[in-house]
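Question thread 4412

I'm putting together a teaching handout and wanted feedback from people who do this every day. The idea is simple: show students a protein as raw sequence, then show them the structure tokens that encode its fold, then repeat with a second protein so they can compare. Below is the first pair exactly as I plan to print it.
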Amino acid sequence: MKLGSIQFLRGMAATLVVYAHSIDLTQRYGKPWQGRFHYLSDVGCIGVDLFFVISGFIITYVAGKYTGASEGTQFLQKRFYRINPIYYIASIVYILSLMIRSWMAHKTYPIWSEKFINSALDTLMVIPLGDGYSPLLMIGWTLSFEWLFYILFFLTILTRVKRKILLLSAIIGVLILLRYVLRPTDLRFAFITNPIMLEFLTGVLLCQLYLHLKKIPVWIPVLLLVVGIAGYVVLVFYNNPLIAAIMPIMNGSLSLDRFLYWGLPSGCIAAGCIFLDKAGKLNRLWNNRFSMLLGDASYSIYLVHFTAFSLLGILYRQVGFFLPPDLSIFFQVLVALGISIAFYWWVEKPLLKWLQKPSRKNKPLETFPTPSAQPQAT
């Protein structure tokens, strides 16, 4: 049995990101009210921060008991299988859609250009290894921080310490402190000392509370959920739009601001949902087919909606922009969800199943926590 609140949160996070990018797509063709209403067009990007919090929770839940080099290597292998193959396939599919658009416009897509080759290398390596960073799929920048978190967690597994979460917190704290002491200008150093890692750490600490607190009063998660939702609403009217951009986060210049503005309310919402689920509340919200499907397909939704929007761009070029701008935003979200879920059924799910076959003797790939098998918190 899956932890329904986690699936719900994953689906919500992915849909928020799709909504934000759907507004961007519509603004190329019209002037939707949603794109002009204060900071509404940026707030959907907060789904990324919610993903980071969820990731910290899940990794702690499923791998908190891992210890030693053998299990550490297994942990990295599982993370690679879970993240990279689908990312590579989604990137290729996206580029193919761009090539089709170029062909239909009687242009040649610059596949042999230096910029494209550098972007392909950034996609392959995931984390930034040079002075710049521009993956083929723009959303790939978030996966670089996922992998940084995995590597830091892997280091704690190698140490065999019992309280690895304290060690992880110390490592992240020291790295962030080094950033403000040394003030690095090199993108690679700025990356590994990035304060955005506090969002993952929020999920880690949330998982520790979930594992150790047997019961808490229901009013506490309700209050956290209300505070988190209120925080999201406030951000529609009072926000810093620069923290929605990629490079101020990659170089760390606005990462702390993003954690304070977007990470903390995301942590409150995650905490409220997870503890309400643990208390047996709102089960119909967490455990229904639609929420579970969106949660299962959330990674495909996250990666493939760019391709869906690229295909819609081809359609608009052929027949024109045929819907009122504000209505088109929701139409595009539905189309993106449909295409992404099809990708999940026909590509992601079969591929993950195939990748597990060579290592059936090992533990299966973990993609979500299950409340029936509580791991030891360390």
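The second pair follows. I'd like the answer to focus on this one:
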Amino acid sequence: MSSESIRNNLAALKQELAQTQGLDTERHTALLDLINQIETQLDSSTDNDNNAVQLKKSITEFETEYPRLTAILNDIAVTLSNLGI
């Protein structure tokens, strides 16, 4: 998997976020911030374990209420892990 697949998953996540109802503003903003941080990290190729930790935390928080968001977040986490990020 490549950074292109991560970017595709991030785009899918943004689209799913736009369509998800019932997500509180704080979580929505936190996910958008996380997406932006991951995109910045991909652009700069710097190593930042904090994003991986935040991503795993987001997956745990969303898995029961928002399974589609969780699936996309999971794909992103696996791809980042495979790339060593």
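Top answer:
Good format. For the second protein you could add a caption like this: The mean pLDDT is 79. The two ends are 12 Å apart (CA to CA).
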